[in-house]
Automatic annotation (TrEMBL):
Any GO MF annotation of the entry: phosphopantetheine binding
Source species, domain of life: Bacteria
Cofactor(s) needed for function: pantetheine 4'-phosphate
GO CC term (a single one): cytoplasm
Domain spans labelled Carrier: 39-113
Protein name: Linear gramicidin synthase subunit B
Organism: Chromobacterium violaceum
Keywords: Phosphopantetheine, Phosphoprotein
Pfam families: PP-binding
GO biological process: amino acid activation for nonribosomal peptide biosynthetic process; secondary metabolite biosynthetic process
Length: 190
């Protein structure tokens, strides 16, 4: 359903007779379908309205306005969620699509809008050892750089042996992680 209409005498055409989309006039505020304006209430609604005005370039933004009816789309929704996070209002895309009206979105925000806490590290500390200074430089290499180094190893490694090893590893959860503890790089192999 279009959110705005513009009445034209004739469609603008290009020299070859096709519709000239760039010459079509944009609807002004009076031609957009909208609800009766109601000013945003509360700090959350006021902050959201300011972000919407900036992102959508629409004046004024009322508490009953819908993000998508004002010209928002999925890519702008991602930007909106990030701007909300920067302003201290934590939400996600699902909340926006579920409550696209300004008042409904502001009401869906939790009062203690905190970020989701990451689970504790489940890697046991025993079996870890400090890596050598020579190995520290390897942690900054890209996958392509590692592959280039591996390709220069004399004798190489037969593919058949590699695939056999990987089949064994797939059955058990095997991983190698590298992290720093107290500014000392640590190498852990599980």
């Amino acid at each position: 359903m279009p959110s705005g209409f513009v009445v034209l005498e004739a469609f603008p055409l290009t020299p070859n007779g096709k519709l000239d989309r760039k010459a079509l006039p944009a609807p002004d505020g009076s031609q957009l379908s909208s609800r009766a304006y109601a000013a945003p209430e509360g700090e959350a609604e006021t902050t959201l309205a300011a972000i919407w005005r900036e992102l959508l370039g629409v004046e004024p933004v009322g508490r009953h306005d819908n993000f998508f009816e004002l010209g928002g789309h999925s890519l702008l929704a991602v930007t909106l969620v990030e701007r909300m996070r920067q302003a201290g209002l934590h939400s996600d895309i699902r909340q926006l699509f579920g409550a696209a009206d300004l008042a409904a979105l502001a009401a869906s925000l939790s009062g203690d809008s905190a970020l989701v806490a990451a689970p504790a590290n489940g890697i046991p500390a025993e079996g870890c050892e400090a890596i050598t200074p020579e190995m520290v430089t390897l942690t900054a290499l890209s996958q392509a750089q590692i592959a280039a180094i591996a390709a220069q190893v004399p004798g190489g490694w037969p593919i058949s042996r590699t695939s056999t090893r990987w089949r064994r590893c797939r059955k058990a959860s095997c991983s190698t992680t590298c992290w720093a503890a107290k500014a000392t790089p640590i190498w852990s192999r599980l």
